[in-house]
Every structure is written in C-alpha cells, then in structure tokens.
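Worked problem 6 (solution included).
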Amino acid sequence: MQQQLSLFEQMQLLQEDKREVVVDESKLTKVYYTITEIAEMFHVNASLLRFWEKEFPAQLSNVKKNKKGDRYYNKQDISKLKLIFHLVKEKRMTLEGAREYLKDNKKKVKDDKTLVENLEKIKEFLLDLKKNIT
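Solution. The predicted structure is:
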C-alpha cells in the first residue's frame, strides 16, 4: 500500500532533490569536452543538451561538431550551459522565460550565478571550519 504524501512533504522532497550542479571551470583542463562528459558534469542526459542547443541557438550556436556530427564543448560553451542550467533547473524557469531573461539580462544572470557560487564556497568553508572546531 502506497502512502499519500501531504503537500508539505512533497515540497520538502522537491527541495531536497534540488538539481544544483557546481562545475568548477578552473579545474577544466581539456580544450574540448564531449557531450557525454558534459552530461556527466551536469548530471543530465546528453539528449537534454542537444535539446537545449536547439532551444537556445543564440547561446549555443557555436558548439563544434566534427564530420560525424559529434559535439565538442569548450570552456565558453560550458559557461553558457551553466547559465542555462541555473535558470531552467535551479530557478525552474520555463524555456521561453529563460530565453527572454538571457536576452534581456545577460550580465545580471552571470553576476547572480557568480554570487551564488561564491556564497556556496563560503558556506562550505564555514561548515568545514565548524566541523574542525567541534
């Protein structure tokens, strides 16, 4: 028998399942990454990345392809994917809303994402410090 979850419990589960991915661009050593490697970094399917390429042509139109059609992403492409991921998966915007937001507020999106990443690093540092003190 399956138990029905209250709305509050469902919301808690959604918050715990928060798809937050931190791809540290300073640790990227290769010039190009395959779509499979990028999908693993973001914990998504490769098909989602191909879909986003069609949905966000202004941001992802420069993804390199070889004669076979294999996609290769550079650091700038990964940075753009981080912004799209942040808007669509973390802020839960619609695709159309994310496209408009990127078009209108490109600099603000980058600044917001950088701020969030820096705050997360500070939080991680403080939690480590607290653990070491105790």
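Discussion: The radius of gyration is 18 Å.
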